[in-house]
Design brief:
This protein is of the alpha+beta class. Helix content is 48%, strand content 19%. It has eleven helices and eight strands. Strands 5-4-3-8-7-6 form a six-stranded antiparallel sheet. A two-stranded antiparallel sheet has the order 1-2. Strand 1 and strand 2 form a beta hairpin. The two termini are 40 Å apart. The mean pLDDT is 87.
Length: 254
């Protein structure tokens, strides 16, 4: 078949979008003007392509107005979602949540079958806040994000965790038995959110909601943390805000 005949099957709008995507292969962030200049395409067309790709999660719009590779583009290229792309994508919503509830917000990811790792922490304007080192990992049963992710999984994974985890007692209220862990997971499933009231540290409470994945389960979770009494006093508001944020994150991350 002649090359000219093959061109009749070329979908020009898709070809233009792929041309734009190829400009981000090196992982750099580009402004609208830079994309127009490098692609040689009409500015309006380029803007519509960038807007569509950003809305679908293939690109991320940074605060300075530049576009950078998003989680879905990274997933297509590497088979996994890099943590920095997920953190960039979640950042605006996490900051919005922290400002709304005026508490510390944590964004965590399932590290393996037993632990979650902290990807980002947003601090509020409170004088008394909870500080957690970034990238610290914790057993799922000792943190609200871990419990939220665990409860979103299937029964077999929960039973395996309960039977194999070292249920160490960090405080008087820590989950220290398999039976209590299973009961807690069932409570999380009924409520749709996890509460860690002083399981890891005395006086500290956190509430978490999982970010649902398209294929089921959850890879990410978001929590709000602070002094136990303060968090409990506004638990209803925190849960509503978390649910809203996690629904929006699911559209961008999964």
């Amino acid at each position: 078949m002649k090359e000219s005949n093959k061109d009749q099957y070329l979908l020009k709008s898709l070809d233009s979008a792929l041309t734009v995507l190829q400009l981000f292969e090196g992982g750099q962030a580009l402004s609208l003007g830079q994309v127009v200049q490098r692609s040689g395409m009409n500015r309006t067309v380029v803007f519509r392509i960038l807007y569509t790709l950003e809305q679908r999660g293939f690109l991320f719009l940074e605060e300075d107005g530049r576009y950078a590779p998003g989680v879905r583009l990274a997933a297509l290229g590497a088979g996994v979602v890099p943590d920095d792309a997920a953190r960039r994508t979640a950042g605006p919503l996490l900051r919005e949540l922290s400002a709304s509830v005026n508490e510390t917000v944590h964004f965590s990811k399932r590290l393996d079958s037993r632990r979650v790792i902290l990807l980002d922490e947003i601090l509020p304007r409170q004088t008394l806040v909870v500080l957690t080192p970034k990238y610290e990992s914790r057993p799922m049963h000792l943190c609200s994000t871990g419990l939220a992710v665990l409860a979103a999984g299937d029964d077999a994974a929960v039973r395996e965790y309960a039977q194999g985890a070292e249920l160490e007692k960090k405080t008087e209220t820590s989950i220290a038995s398999a039976d209590r862990l299973l009961e807690t997971v069932e409570q999380v499933r009924r409520d749709g959110y996890a509460v860690n009231d002083q399981f890891f540290e005395t006086g500290v409470c956190s509430i978490a909601v999982p970010v649902p994945a398209r294929q089921g389960g959850a890879l990410y979770a978001v929590s709000v943390s602070g002094p136990s009494q303060r968090i409990r006093d506004k638990q209803e508001t925190i849960v509503a805000e978390l649910r809203s944020v996690c629904r929006r994150l699911a559209e961008k991350l999964t």
